Prior knowledge:
366 residues, 17 helices, mainly alpha
Amino acid sequence: MQRLPGLDLLRAIAIVWVMLFHSWMVGGIGGPFQPIADYGWMGVDLFFVLSGYLIGRQLLEPLGRGEPLRFGAFYLRRAFRILPAFLAVLAIYVLFPAWREAPGLQPAWQFLTFTLNLLIDYRHNQAFSHAWSLCVEEHFYLLFPLLAWWLARRPSRTAVVVGAAGVVAAGLLLRGYASLHGRDWLESIYYPTWTRLDGLLAGVLLATIQTWQPAWWAAMQRRANLLAGAGLLLAAAAIWLFRDKTAFAASVFCFPLLSLGLALLVAAGAGSTGWLGRWRVPGAGWIAAASYSLYLSHKLAMHAVHELLQRWPVPHGLAAFAAYALAIAATGALLHYAVERPFLRLRTRLARAGSRGAIEAQPASA
C-alpha cells in the first residue's frame, strides 16, 4: 500500500505526542509545552484511528473486488509485523529489572496472551504498561477479519450503521457504568478493549466508505481542507472537555467525540487534495516508519537517561531534553533496524516465495 505523506505526518505526531506525555516519568518537559504533553495520551487514540483505517483498507478492498479473504496470510503478516520487536522488548523487561522505568511488572504470560489491558494492577505494576494499546490492537486484528468476511457476504448499509451504532452505544454504557460505580478509571475505562473501540471503529468506517462508497469518498477528498478544519475543532473540543478526564461526562462521551475529530483528520490526510495530505515535513516519514519501535522502547530510554542524569546532573533545560530525545531516537532506531526491519524483509521474501509457488502449482491452462 502506497505511503501517504499526510498519514505519515499524523503517525509521527501521534508517537511524538505519546512520548511527550510519558515525560511525566522524568519530571515532565515543563514550560509552555507542558499543556501539550499533558494530553499526549490522545496520541494512542490517533494510532487507533490510523490502524482502523489502514487495516480496514487492507481487508475490505479485496472483499470489495469480490476476492476471498486470506485469513492465514493476514494473520501471518500481522505476526511478523508485531511480534519480533514486541518479544525483544518484553525479554528486556523480564530479564533486566533494573532497566525498567518502574519496578513492578505484570506476569509475562499476560503480555504473551495480550490480556494485560484486562488484568493489569496499575497501582503496583506500571512497567511496560503502555503495552495495553497493543492488546487492543491484537484483539482488533483477531476479530475484525471475521466480522469483515461475514458482513461482505451480504453487504448492507443498514447492517454497518446498526453495528457501528451498537459499538458506540456499548462503549457509552460500559464507561458510564464504570464511572457511576466508582471503578478505577485506568483499569475499567481507559485500558479495556470494550471501552476503547471508538477510534478503531472510526478508522474502519473511513475504509468502508472508501471501498464501498467511492463517490462519497471522492466528495470528502474534494473537501479535505474543510474536513481537516472540522477535525481540529472537534479534537480541540474533546481536549477542552477532557480537562477532568475522570469526570462522568468526559469519560462517557469524549472518546467518540475525539475519535470523530481524529477520523476527519485521517480522511483529510489520506489524499493529496488538501494541505494536510500534501504537507511533507522533513523527518516525519522516518519517525512514522519507526513509530512502533519508538513506542515499544521509549520508556526504557527515558529511564536510562534519567538514571544517568541523577549521577551526573549537568544537563538542564534544552540540553536535558536533547539528551532524552537522542537516547529515545537511538534506542528506537536500534530496535527498528536490528529487529523490526529484518523480520519485515523476511515477511516480504516469504510472501513472494509463496506467490511464486502458487503460480507454479497452477495447471498450464489456468
